[in-house]
Write a structure and sequence with these properties.
about 0% strand; about 450 residues; single chain; mainly alpha; disordered C terminus
Length: about 450
């Protein structure tokens, strides 16, 4: 009981430490998407462009009283998931060691900055860690922990459309890793532990799309985002120039305005997208244009996708946290009116007054991520040889999640700093766990033993 109390206190302290960027800012970080998520639960609002689940998850948390509660809960989930991951991969973890890892993550990774945002970004990392815990080492979780992590995995995957392909990719990697380690029995455990929650998360998105937009829109409006990307990169614009006006596309009438920045194409009221009828009207047309552009110009499409993927992988900064909402009148007023007692606090926050600063952190976070990635890649094979296979599996799962997230975000949507920041802290965590595992088994390694780790996680 005493050990459990120490762990609970350590996790609570860890959550408090992870709140430091929001506390420094003076208020939770906001983005133009934040008011929409708040309004989903408050008004039953269903935006075409995003999942409703994050809105309904945070609704009972903030209760139209305070957005601080959202930051606290997100930080608490993050602190607990870090603890579970440390315990599962290292077998045991002392509160002091756990808090040391939390302090390093708080100082050297984007984790606390992403957790301080009223956005579903933090749930991308949650999904990857949850699928790792359920698929790779389910026997190291208690029954209550397994149920909690399973529910968290499903909810996290459903909070953002971009997490659906990432979850599928991670779940498949979990099955492959388990098959290599344990054969068919391991593959079966991976299917149950990782593929099932991923499938349920995807099903949740499909159900809401059908409920709000009909069976024909079960897959959502991803084609609109793909069209925005391809018209800026060139293949879709070139395809339209070849086929218009004979193809009869609504966008043919506005071809002279293309290409344009994908963000303006998606959100500017006077963009060709809205002049031609809007995303709800043009979804089928967008699918046809994207399909035609890819078939007609496969190599330029592939080259652009790879370039955007590369840009996304290399992009990491706190630029989004410095983006003030003060110039976005509707967004600013929506949050202010919903949380009227916090209106003055929000308006005086460093983010909203352009006084956040801390520009040196951009270089620090990039350097830490690069060092962590190099460490993970260097230690991957030694960990496999020395029986640190759970840690090696964590590295493989995390790198898979990072690469798929970067491809979906960069190649299909748009390379943005926040898209990488929401996931890159996982590689920092994996590197720390790898180093801790080596330090824990250093005596056995120095004595020349090849298998030194704990591998009591067979399914």
């Amino acid at each position: 009981m005493e050990d459990r109390a120490r762990i609970v206190i350590a996790v609570l302290l860890g959550a408090a430490i992870l709140c430091w960027p929001a506390l420094y800012n003076g208020y939770p970080f906001l983005y133009p998407d934040s008011p929409a998520y708040v309004e989903i639960a408050a008004e039953g609002y269903k935006p075409w462009s995003r999942s409703i689940y994050y809105g309904y998850l945070i609704g009972p948390v903030h209760m139209n009283v305070s957005l601080w509660l959202v930051v606290v809960v997100q930080s608490l989930i993050a602190a607990h998931l870090v603890y579970l991951t440390l315990r599962v991969t290292l077998d045991t973890i002392q509160p002091f060691t756990y808090l040391a890892v939390i302090v390093l993550l708080a100082a050297l990774s984007p984790l606390p900055w992403v957790g301080g945002f009223v956005l579903p970004d933090i749930f991308g990392g949650f999904a990857v860690l949850a699928l790792f815990l359920l698929g790779i080492a389910p026997n190291r979780l208690s029954r209550a922990e397994s149920v909690y992590v399973f529910c968290l995995a499903v909810a996290a995957i459903a909070t953002h459309n971009a997490y659906l392909p990432m979850a599928l990719g991670v779940a498949c990697i979990v099955v492959v890793v388990n098959s290599v380690r344990f054969g068919w029995r391991g593959a079966s455990a991976g299917l149950l532990g990782a593929v099932l929650p991923a499938a349920l998360g995807i099903a949740a998105i499909v159900v809401t799309n059908v409920a709000y937009h009909g069976v024909e829109r079960a897959a959502g409006y991803g084609s609109i985002f793909a069209l925005a990307r391809l018209q800026e990169d060139g293949p879709a614009t070139a395809y339209l120039r070849d086929r218009c006006p004979d193809a009869g596309y609504n966008l043919c009438a506005y071809l002279d305005d293309l290409p344009m920045w994908s963000n303006d194409f998606l959100w500017h009221a006077r963009s060709p997208l809205y002049k031609a009828g809007g995303p709800l009207v043009l979804a089928d047309e967008a699918s046809a244009i994207v399909r035609g552009a890819v078939i007609a110009r496969p190599w330029p499409t592939l080259e652009a996708a790879i370039a955007n993927w590369r840009d996304q992988v290399l992009m990491l900064s706190l630029k989004t946290q410095r983006w003030s909402l003060a110039n976005h009148d509707w967004h600013f007023r929506t949050i202010g009116n919903r949380f009227s007692t916090e209106q003055e606090t929000m308006a005086s926050a460093r983010q909203q007054t352009d006084t956040l600063g801390l520009y040196f952190l951009d270089s620090l976070l990039r350097t830490a991520a690069l060092v962590s990635l190099v460490l993970c890649l260097m230690l991957l094979w030694p960990l496999v040889r020395w029986h640190g296979k759970s840690v090696a599996a964590l590295i493989v799962v995390v790198v898979t999640g990072l690469l798929i997230n970067a491809f979906v975000s960069g190649a299909i949507s748009e390379p943005l700093p926040r898209n990488n920041a929401r996931m890159i802290w996982l590689i920092d965590l994996a590197a720390m766990i790898s180093v801790l595992w080596l330090l824990r088994h250093r005596r056995a390694l120095w004595s020349g033993r090849r298998k030194v780790g704990y591998e009591g996680d067979e399914p």
